[in-house]
Amino acid sequence: METKKGLIGIVGGMGPSAGIDIASKIVDQTIASKDQEHLPQILYSEPSVIGDRTEYILGKIKVNPAYNIAGILLKLESAGATIACLACNSAHAPQIFDVIAEELSKKRSSIKLLHIIDEVGKFIKALYPEISKVGILGTSGTYKTNQYSRIKQFGLEAVNVTPAEQEKVHNSIYHPEYGIKSLGGVVSDRSRTILEDAALSLKKKGAGAVVLGCTELPLAFREKSYKGMHLIDASLVLARALVHAHSPEKLKPLK
């Protein structure tokens, strides 16, 4: 295995399909004509040890999932990972991500942990400089912390749905009967309809692009645009950032 530049590490299990999705996208976004030319990566998916990020943010569970996430990152580093990501948008909420960073610092870790929201902001600014307002779809944890407001550092304004609409969006992800997580990554018609309605609401607020700000949502929107708005697959952006950070010459041109 080629390890001179180290492995790309992925903290999966949040949910399991999201980690697999990012790993697959790393392969898809890499220039390679044979197996041996692909980049080395390692996916660590142990869902049972990572508490639900949204439940923690909403105060439904007390134990911060940051500690076990940091532990997994240290295991990835021990296995040879030099660059890593979290396959979960909600895990980037400050009360989780900042604690992860603190834990890594305490252990004197040198692993480079990419931040999905920063990568999305850079991506939109570079590709769509004409856009100023960006709609956000994600979990209620992402909504409550307003974590995508972080893209203001790139001159972008994050636009959100109403609280009532957000409850429906959250259900499209988590509902035990029709939610994407509950169905193991399968997107029900009901979930798709909810997300389409939410996207249209964001368009009415001036959004020129919509960030699929939960790693399950790209499973619902396979297209690149919807009703004239660019759809930003945060998982794809993160996968491309990982490839670029590891071996920039291996990154495929964006189609």
Describe this structure in words.
The chain is globular, with a radius of gyration of 17 Å. The protein is α/β, with parallel strands linked by helices and 255 residues long. The strands form 2 sheets. It has a 5-stranded mixed sheet with strand order 6-5-7-9-8. The protein has 2 domains: 123 residues, Rossmann fold (3-Layer(aba) Sandwich); 119 residues, Rossmann fold (3-Layer(aba) Sandwich), CATH 3.40.50.1860.
Number of strands: 9
Q: Average pLDDT value? A: 95
Number of helices: 9
CATH topology of the largest domain: Rossmann fold
SSE arrangement:
Layout: E1 7-11, H1 16-28, E2 41-44, H2 53-57, H3 66-78, E3 81-86, H4 94-106, E4 112-113, H5 116-127, E5 133-137, H6 140-145, E6 157-159, H7 163-174, H8 189-204, E7 209-212, E8 225-226, E9 229-233, H9 234-246
Give a quick rundown of the structure:
This protein is an alpha/beta fold.
Main traits of this protein?
9 helices, 14% strand, single chain, Rossmann fold, four-stranded parallel β-sheet, 255 residues
